[in-house]
Design a protein that fits this description.
Layout (H helix, E strand, L loop, with lengths): L29 H24 L4 H6 L2 H16 L5
Helix pairs in contact: 1-3
């Protein structure tokens, strides 16, 4: 059986160090955190009010199952905001 050829590997050379300063993102503004948490609370509150008092509130009764879309979308917006929070 023929013997396989040995491959010659080049020596590892690390990538050159960049001398340009990197901008480091600082912490997010405290208002961002407040809006993020407010979205969660508003979404949860919308769903709780939908379950408890939707038939007695005219505009919520007219929305029907749209109340679930509104409540869950507020919660999802708050969760999506967590990806940009530092």
């Amino acid at each position: 059986m023929p013997k396989s050829k040995v491959r010659k590997k080049a020596a590892y050379t690390p990538p050159p160090v960049s001398r340009t300063p990197q901008k480091v993102a600082g912490p997010t503004h405290p208002a961002y955190l407040a809006v993020m948490v407010a979205m969660w609370i508003l979404g949860l509150g919308w769903l709780v009010v939908n379950y408890l008092a939707a038939p007695s509130i005219p505009f919520m009764a007219a929305l029907g199952n749209g109340n679930f879309i509104i409540g869950f979308s507020l919660i999802v917006i708050g969760l999506l905001m967590t990806m940009r929070w530092r």
